[in-house]
């Protein structure tokens, strides 16, 4: 796995060959691939389902099994819906158009939050997806994310292979972006995804996105790149019919690894150039072979439940409001004034503020239904 022979390794161990920094990195990387703490794992990272009903109470209470009394309501929506209910990052859209029905949307944080509700309900993703399909749910989008803890994938190297035509694929296009370059497409983490490679058209029903997750964590949270627990992420993004067939396979085999890699292997493989052979006979690249399953431990579908927090609100206050509050506090102290107290005393809480207080002070068990 380190790209050296057993004989060369023996000479290094015997002190007959100097161990260079580059070789040390390769050896440590090879050891990390056999780390028992799951070098890779799978997550649901985006779920969007349309239900053929305007009975939003039924969708929220009986399918999502959430307590609608804790949800916020807004008289606007997205995707041409006219209103929505939401609890943190769990969004349910509706309108008066029977053809549009009711739409559930869970982005990355929404999936993590919904997992905390599934845990309280003693349900799994498989249980929920089965309930959704039984209720006539139509899959609009499903993203499966393969998280690489060991640095198995090398995104710049995969990009180089695409450029050298060492990528055998049913897709006709790929696009790459250098670390820190602005991604012009509708990504939530536009400038913070490190080296990014899109394989396939973003307008098609299936395409892949792989990027340096450690760079993203550095850009967003300041986590040192070498300390980030996840090095890379490979996302399988499925829409409409492709999303439906993936869910059907998940509910047939209950094996997320099989589902994910059957999709990957159907569409793409990375090879090493062998000029004397036809491209279809080129040898599978060693790194890629390990990624798709050769000599590595099985990958499990995991959950990473996170409760809804005021992270974004607190971040905004920290950036935009806190300096002014600190200034007023110093002025109050220096002039014996009470600007801050007056501001707080005169502040009026809206119904939305009161509902958020209820959400934040409720136990998870109160937010779900039986």
TrEMBL record:
**Pfam families from the UniProt entry:** Rep_trans, Rol_Rep_N
Domain Replication initiation protein-like C-terminal span(s) in chain numbering: 138-343
Database matches in InterPro entries: MobT (IPR048093), REP-like_C (IPR003491), Rol_Rep_N (IPR040819)
Tell me the ranges covered by the Rolling Circle replication initiation protein N-terminal domain, including all copies.
Answer: 43-129
Q: What is this protein called?
A: Cro/Cl family transcriptional regulator
**The organism of origin for this protein:** Eisenbergiella tayi
